[in-house]
Amino acid sequence: MNENKTNINWYPGHMAKTKRLILEKIDLIDVVYEVIDARIPYSSKIIDIEQYIKNKPRILILNKMDLCDPKETEKWIHYYEEKGYIVLGMDLMHSTNIKPLLDATAKCLEQESMKRSQKGLKMRKARVLVVGIPNVGKSTLINRLVGKKAVVVGNKPGVTKNLDWIRINDTLELLDSPGILWPKFENETVSFNLASLTAIKEEVLPLEEVVIYILHTLERYYPQILQERYGIDHLEEDIVETLDWIGKRRGCLIRGGEVDYEKVYTVILNDIKEGHIKGITFDRMEDIHES
Ligand code: G4P
Question: In Å, how far are 60, 169, 263 from 125, measured between CA atoms?
């Protein structure tokens, strides 16, 4: 594997802009929803998030629970709870039940609400910002929260400076666009996990290496998936033989019957992207502690 490539700190221009925007908005925000991917609850988390959101109350949402390995992900939920986070596992794709999130939000704001009522102040709507790396489900969450009865509150001159707020209910308003942040490619495992399970791929690592990593990780933790999906019970020492097998089985051939490796990579990546491969959590507590 190419060591240099995994250590790059890819920092596209738009990140600087997002950072500035979040910093501008954060004082108006009461609660932050930080969305991460339940299959990579470590790699998809933004390490230096405090830089952006200061000490605002925050709810950590492990999304895509339908695709994760619940036993492993449960350990991560516990890990973050131990660190003092309010943690929620969600499947925003299939479930429309946002009540647990609304309840958690109300709990986050309990103290603030109490202070206001003791001072005889009227309750105001809590303002929420959604943040996370690309592809974790931020927009899906916003759509779930907004539902059908969305009302764009619009700009409030002098208060929100060109920001649109969407009314969620009597107690909550949502900033209409999420804060898209970029992960840190802290080490090789994190880089490969991000490349394997998110939309962040060829910008970071060659597809071939990502696919080989996926196959090795499946062999190590989920051999039954290799068997069920690709009909193999182990990877060959020469990985090309395994790719050939999968290619032939899945019809990734070019004229003359040769295997088209680019197609094999796409098939495997799509198996993950489209959720044909589920029940996987690639971040493992033991790896993190080793690194
Ligand atoms: P983002 O704003 O953070 O970039 O993520 P977005 O909501 O666009 O979600 C990224 C992809 O993940 C979308 O699929 C979305 O449907 C899917 N997704 C979101 N939440 C869940 C979940 O809980 N479970 C599963 N299985 N998938 C989820 P897509 O194929 O990129 O787009 P689309 O074809 O669904 O629109």
Answer: 21, 9, 51
The one-letter amino acid code at 195 reads A
From 61-70, 97-106, 203-212, the region with the lowest mean pLDDT: 203-212
Structure tokens at 202: 């060829």
Class of domain 206-284: mainly alpha
Phi–psi pair at 254, nearest 5 degrees: -105, 175
Give dist(CA 245, CA 2) in Å, integer. 25
Residues 279 and 69: their CA atoms lie apart, in Å, by 4
Query: What are the residue boundaries of the structural domains of the chain, listed by start?
Result: 8-176, 206-284
Q: Specify the CATH class of 8-176 in words.
A: alpha beta
Binding site membership of 64 for ligand 1 (Cβ less than 6 Å): yes
User: Which protein residue has the closest C-alpha to ligand 1 atom 35?
Assistant: 93
Q: Residue 171 has what pLDDT?
A: 87
Inter-CA distances, 173 with 38, 41, 130, Å: 26, 27, 11
Confidence of residue 289 (pLDDT cuts 50, 70, 90): low
